[in-house]
Amino acid sequence: MAATRQITPALAITYTVSADMDTCGDASSLTAPLGAAIHHCVFVQNTGNLTLTRHTLSIPALEVNQAFDFTLPPNASLLIGNALETTAGVSATLGTYTLNNNLLSEATFTSDTEDAQSVT
Questions:
Q1: Residue 80's beta-bridge partner residues?
Q2: What's the distance, Cα to Cα, between the start and end of the chain in Å?
Q3: For residues 74 and 100, what is the distance between their CA atoms, to the nearest angstrom?
Q4: What's the pLDDT score for residue 25?
Q5: Which one of 29, 74, 99, 110 has the lowest number of neighbouring Cβ atoms within 10 Å?
Q6: pLDDT (0 to 100) of residue 96
Q7: Cβ distance 29 to 47 under 8 Å?
Q8: CA 40 to CA 97: how far, in whole Å?
Q9: What pLDDT is recorded for position 75?
Q10: Is 34 exposed, middle or buried (0-12, 13-18, 19+ CB in 10 A)?
Q11: Number of C-alpha atoms within 13 angstroms, CB side, residue 112?
Q12: d(CA 31, CA 33)
């Protein structure tokens, strides 16, 4: 009898905001005055058992829609913030935005496996 391998692509995503421009912080919400600079970060971990290669980050409220290539093997993680370009060598950045109005934002992160299977 041949052995079978269960294929399970999966992602864990954490979207945080912070008033501290030097760190991503760990809050999922923030109260700040209008005109304040707010730092946004997305932490992604490949919790499945397939390598993920093509990624798209979308945050419509911030007009962010970025696609990029990055090899993310099982159990590896990726932090998207101000320093992503220098730490991972890919051209996707997310960082500081000025609060001009009440803002409710949600992040969507989609990745593809090496055989183009999509994972959100």
A1: 42
A2: 34
A3: 39
A4: 82
A5: 29
A6: 61
A7: no
A8: 8
A9: 92
A10: exposed
A11: 10
A12: 7
Assess whether pLDDT exceeds 50 at residue 86.
Answer: no
| The two structure tokens encoding residue 38 | 């707010």
Q: Pairing mode, if any, of strands 77-80 and 64-72?
A: unpaired
Report whether 29 contacts 18 (CB < 8 A): no
Residue ranges of domains in the chain, CATH in brackets: 11-21+37-119 (2.60.40.10)
Q: What is the pLDDT of residues 3-47, one digit of tens each?
A: 676 778 889 999 888 888 777 788 888 887 877 788 888 888 999
Structure tokens belonging to residue 117: 């299977």
Q: Distance between CA 59 and CA 61 in Å, rounded?
A: 6
pLDDT of residue 94: 61
pLDDT in tens, 60-75: 877 888 888 888 899 9
Residue that has been written with the tokens 């932090």 in this structure: 79
Q: Which of 37, 40, 39, 41 is nearest to 98 (CA)?
A: 37
